[in-house]
């Protein structure tokens, strides 16, 4: 097993399956970041992970299934929300987390590869949507707390506010070569808070 194996004594008996999955998903993420979805190959992933290719083919079967599992794991492993006591503080923490992820050379390349693949592959698109739904659901309570504190209008769509924080960061990430820095993250959070306070994200009355 490669260095992805857990430290001695930290794995429950029977934990080999979890170790194999972790090694394979790490290898898949590395390969995606380096070469993109089109060149992702299960045999290469097995070699990188130092796992038998039969194991990889039996468990995942296709590149699409492997990428779906990678995204599921990323959603599970993502950092929990930060609660600062203010909406701006919470959403700034969210924006900076997104910014750090996209600005990271490996993670940024990985997301570009998966987003590109999702435009032409339904299973990958579904997995990507699930990833973002998980992250939005994690942070939406911060917005609901702001509603409860009276910071935002009563009928605010909490999920739309969270999406509004990430949207300009992803747009800049995918359409420009400019540096995605903390200043961009802070502006995104400030803009989302200002718009939410102004009632831009109210649910329609029919909902």
Automatic annotation (TrEMBL):
Transcription regulation keyword on record: yes
GO molecular function, one term: DNA-binding transcription factor activity
Domain HTH tetR-type span(s) in chain numbering: 18-78
DNA-binding segment(s): 41-60
Record has Transcription regulation as a keyword: yes
Keywords: DNA-binding, Transcription, Transcription regulation
Protein name: TetR family transcriptional regulator
Species whose genome carries this gene: Streptomyces broussonetiae
